[in-house]
Specification:
The complex is a heterotrimer. Chain A is α+β, with helices and mostly antiparallel strands. Helices cover about 55% and strands about 10% of the residues of chain A. In chain C, strands 2-1-5-4-3 form a five-stranded antiparallel sheet, sandwiched between helices. Classes of the chains: A alpha+beta, B alpha+beta, C alpha+beta. Chains in contact: A-B, A-C, B-C. β3 of chain A pairs antiparallel with β3 (about 70-75) of chain C.
């Protein structure tokens, strides 16, 4: 583990904008090095103020340090950025349970269960909260607390790219499949500098798709079928291959938008087929 | 974040407004500053301060409108670096309700708050009890009613 | 700058067949700057939602390293929303029928963004 910290620290030093700060700070937190974790997390948050996972991580560290008021603020910010963020919903539930507000604790856990019905941690937390048992140590992993369970929920490993988008151009770096909660199911993304930005982009996409759906509904545009964007450094196409999945296709500016739409159609077809096989 | 109401008919419209507009803090109150519902506050002293200040702002701007021979302004917005504040009034069967809304500029905007405030206003109007003029509150009653309201607003 | 160039720019957009309305929106606060809308389209709603979606999309694109958005297009089963962010922080927005000529509308939006600055 010491090597892991060293390795991650070196990566972060090399690229301060990298999201490796999330893993490094979490590792330090689990080792009990809260001051160091706090510094790393805060620095990362200053660079990525809109990243839900960064706010969630910072909240966990604050809760471990006993600063529950600020932890509350950070988890509140997390759910504002990403309303389906399981870690934050669990964290808020933990804090409410800690002050004896069982109703609010249950409400937040039920909301989390709505997004992840099969999560055993949430079911366990609900059982404890409803049973009236007090929360264990301030930041313990029990009761769906702000410890490991939140980390586990937030860091589900993506499937290997090839299994979802096998045979499609850009499968390794320009195609991303997410579930409705914004968790990566397959694919990967790299920025023009070659850095892996999968997690960072995934964190924002759930919010984008929810806003797209709301916009289409309230403006009478019907059901949204696609969101295409032309950027200074590339083109992006976001679609919903199924109601519970999001597909992102990214290409450089050399790919015309029309062709991008065709690539997106093929990728959506592959994604639907793969999702069907998982049932 | 907790959403609580002294007047229960305000609760569902308030929850929907908070969800759609992405508001961080909301107070629903009478023009005199008596709080009917709140979202996002964690301390009673903050609620009291915000209610008093919000009521004072509304009273000041109403006086400006009066001196301009205009009807009272429908809404006010202030915007800072990270947060915005919105104040709006709606007439209901229970009398005028003032909404004080604080929102993060990262999560919402003046346009979104105004858009969903219209929906909130319509829902409050539809849900409000159609009662007569409320009884006059004596000073002794006021202290007790304020204390009772704060307990309800914080779930104690 | 007077309102006349804004009006001209919006007129050129709404002349494209299938465009139901065009407007200029302040991206930061989602408020209407100027509008030219057919009946039945709620300007404040378009402004607020286009502003919000534009901001969220911008953050996702920044995270992806794609840079700022030049044009975006939300397609729905019953209509579409097309937006070009201008350098001044104004969004040029068109609300359209679902089968509009996107390329043509995009060109007019880019032209209007040049006028707005």
């Amino acid at each position: 583990m010491a090597d892991d910290v060293k390795g991650l620290s070196a990566q972060l030093a090399q690229d301060p904008m990298s999201l490796v700060f999330l893993r490094l700070a979490e590792l330090l937190r689990l080792r009990g090095q809260l001051d160091a974790a706090h510094r790393i997390a805060l620095s990362g948050l200053e660079r990525h103020p809109h990243l839900a996972d960064a706010h969630d991580l910072y909240a966990r560290i604050l809760a471990d340090k006993g600063d529950f008021e600020r932890a509350f603020d950070e988890w509140d910010m997390t759910v504002r950025i990403a309303p389906s963020h399981i870690g934050a919903l669990k964290g808020l539930a933990f804090l409410y349970f800690k002050v004896g507000d069982v109703d609010q604790a249950v409400m937040h856990l039920e909301t989390a269960r709505g997004f992840m019905p099969d999560d055993p941690g949430i079911a366990q937390a609900l059982a404890v909260v409803r049973g009236g048992q007090p929360a264990k140590a301030a930041a313990g992993p029990a009761v769906g607390g702000p410890g490991q369970e939140a980390a586990t929920a937030a860091t589900a490993a993506p499937m290997e790219d090839s299994r979802v988008f096998a045979g499609l151009e850009g499968a390794q770096e320009g195609l991303l499949l997410l579930d409705a909660a914004g968790r990566v199911l397959g694919g990967a993304l790299r920025n023009p500098a070659g850095q892996d930005v999968t997690d960072a982009v995934a964190a924002y996409l759930a919010g984008v798709s929810q806003e797209a759906a709301r916009t289409a509904k309230l403006l009478g545009l019907g059901t949204w079928t696609g969101l295409a964007t032309e950027g200074g450094g590339g083109h992006v196409h976001l679609a919903q291959p199924t109601p519970d999945a999001l597909l992102l296709v990214v290409r450089d500016r050399a790919t015309p938008m029309g062709r991008l739409a065709i690539v997106a159609q093929r990728a959506a077809h592959a994604a639907r087929r793969w999702l069907e096989q998982q049932k | 974040m907790s959403t609580r109401a002294v007047e229960s008919w305000t609760l569902d419209p308030l929850k929907r407004f908070v969800g759609e507009a992405g508001a961080r803090l909301v107070l629903l109150m009478t023009p005199a500053g008596q709080v009917m519902a709140q979202h996002g506050f964690s301390r009673a002293v903050d609620v009291m301060s915000a209610a008093a200040l919000g009521a004072a702002i509304m009273a000041s701007t109403a006086e400006i409108a009066r001196q301009l021979n205009q009807p009272p302004f429908a809404a006010l917005t202030h915007q800072g670096d990270r947060h915005g504040i919105f104040l709006g009034a709606v007439s209901t069967g229970r009398g005028t309700i003032v909404a004080l809304v604080v929102y993060d500029l990262d999560a919402s905007s003046a346009g979104l708050v105004q858009l969903f405030f219209e929906q909130l206003a319509a829902e409050l109007k539809a849900a409000s009890p159609k009662e007569g003029v409320p009884k006059q509150v004596l000073a002794a009653d006021f202290e007790r009613e304020l204390s009772d309201s704060l307990n309800t607003l914080f779930g104690r | 700058m007077t309102a006349a160039p804004f009006e001209r720019a919006l007129n050129l957009i709404t002349r494209v067949r299938g465009v139901r309305g065009a407007m200029l929106v302040s991206a930061a606060d989602g408020l209407v700057v100027a509008e030219h809308l057919m009946e039945g389209i709620k300007g404040p709603a378009v402004a607020a939602l286009a502003g919000s979606l534009s901001n969220r999309l911008g953050r996702a694109m920044e995270a992806a390293g794609i840079g700022h958005s030049v044009f975006w297009h939300l397609q729905g089963t019953d209509g579409a929303l097309l937006v070009v962010p201008a350098a001044s922080g104004i969004l040029v927005v068109a609300v359209t029928e679902p089968d509009v000529n996107v390329g043509l509308v995009r060109l007019e939006l880019l032209g209007a963004a040049g006028v707005v600055g």
